[in-house]
Protein: Dipeptidyl aminopeptidase/acylaminoacyl peptidase
Amino acid sequence: MYRRDVRDTSHDGLLADMATADTAVQSASAPDDGRIAYALNREDQTDLWLRADGHDARLTSEGVLAMRRGRGDTQWFAWGPDGDRLAFVDAAGTLSTVDTETGTVEELTHHDDPDLGLAWGEHGVAAVTDAVSRAALVLVDPDTGSQQVLADDDHLYGDPRWGKDGLYAVRAPHRSLFDFEAELVRFPIEDGDVANEPEVLFTQDAVRVQTPRPHPDGDGVAFVHDASGFDGIHYADAESVAEAAEKRDSVETTVVHAAEETEVGAPAWHSDGDRLAFTATRNGRSHVGVADVDGDAKRLSEGDEKHTGPFWRDGALHTIRGDPTTPPQVWNAEVGSAVVATGAVGFDDRLAEPTEFTFRSGGTEIHTVVYPPVGGFPEEADSVPVLVHPHGGPTAFDDFGWDYRSQYFAALGYAVAMPNYRGSDGYGRAHRMANDGDWGGGDLDDVIDAADATAEAFPAVDADRAGVFGGSGGGLMTVNALGNADAFDAGAAFYGVYDYETFVDDTDDIGWQLMKRELGDLSTDLENYREASPIRSVPDIEDPVLVLHGEEDTRVPLSQSEQLCDELEKHGKRHELQTYEEEPHGFSQRENVLDAYTRVADLFAKYLQIDPDDGSSRPHRPDEE
Structure:
């Protein structure tokens, strides 16, 4: 399936540089001075670093759990109240602390994949853990490791934050998950202790609450909800919170900041308590700004950027910022410069500047981010093949941040179209929920239509030479698109779900809960599971399929790709399976990323007719004949 004598291999070095570039994940300022702790991904491992007096020191060396969660910006590590230690969860799932002076790490207690946040206050470290039950909330003594269970019930808890009057968090019913419905709760501090029974402060049917941020002086709480159809920041003062807790009713709030057709979120209080930082996401761009409590707001960024995790340091607003040619880095938004620069040297001249367009699919506007070939689209019509790259999730979205995979294919001369299909986040509640009960329906149409729509928007694009590739939900979309349309000439599917009926037995709780919500109960709605499974469309696939999967994937097990390939083999379809040891759900090890994406590039070069004919190709390896 691979021929490296028909592809320009000189860009493989660019792929290696981008795949190994340092990327900042999250950052937080110390409570007592201007030090910054930040999580940095380097060479396939994320660790905590400390910036103090203009110098950087690595605090951990065995890896920590930290990731960008999108606009919610869950806290993955937390400063202690005295500023001498940080709490974090290591790569093995152990809740630990690290001394910022000596680097000494102390293990507290083992938690299985705490994945929805932690917070350190005077009463201890609040952490979300699966060790008790799925997404339970516990309180851990930072000195002894002793544990108190705060919430172990029929809800999923997330994003705990300490206020002077108690511990705030969000929670969602198990079946709803956090993308559909969630409410604001508080565990009050009574007689010096944290109560075990939470008070529900804000709840509405089919409304999602996110990011509770208690006022620094104890005067209530700011939080985000989407009752208007788009996320906005709302504030309730202490009197309103107390009244709501007493009456057991939703708290009365005022709007701090909301904007038309814009998702406003990630509030962060200034220490004076009179203003909040925010992010504003629209059409794939996430900007940062400041809003007074009375509603006056201004943005501090513009252009093709993605800002996450705003925080204050010495009165100045900071974020994690990335753009299409710059990996995410710690950024001072007040002056517009990096505080901790990442490995972006020389990328600007070698990478593409993405653009955008919208098209109508089934009456729905689909915003699409497009990477042209490096240097822009040529004038010659039908001269550029197109790759459609659906994101995973499906509750995610493609943006104008750092995307080295799309940049690699742009360097190879492709146009890469990334449609934010029905079910994508970042475009309001209605769009996010538009694929509910319709998996493989309108959302699949959006992906299939994207190739022709890109050619209509950009005359240089040739829709008759089109490929499709994606991971997880994007891998599922890839196989579904190949089996339900003739829009593509080849596809590469990474770690996707292909048979929902068997996936039920192999996935984790999140995957199972999501399927129950979308497809119903297996005992009564089995046909829904079978009908929605991409493996059903294998007999109709006419084009080659490259299937790639990590052998340590617990979210989507390798058996899904093995089943798909068995079915492809049964029907005599051209395919190949490539697996990678020690890779979980998503590839991150340098050698595996290089192998996987150069294989995909070979596939598309062969079937979409990209022959450099300039001496830059290389013979294919003997084991690939």
In short: The first helix runs from residue 12 to 19.
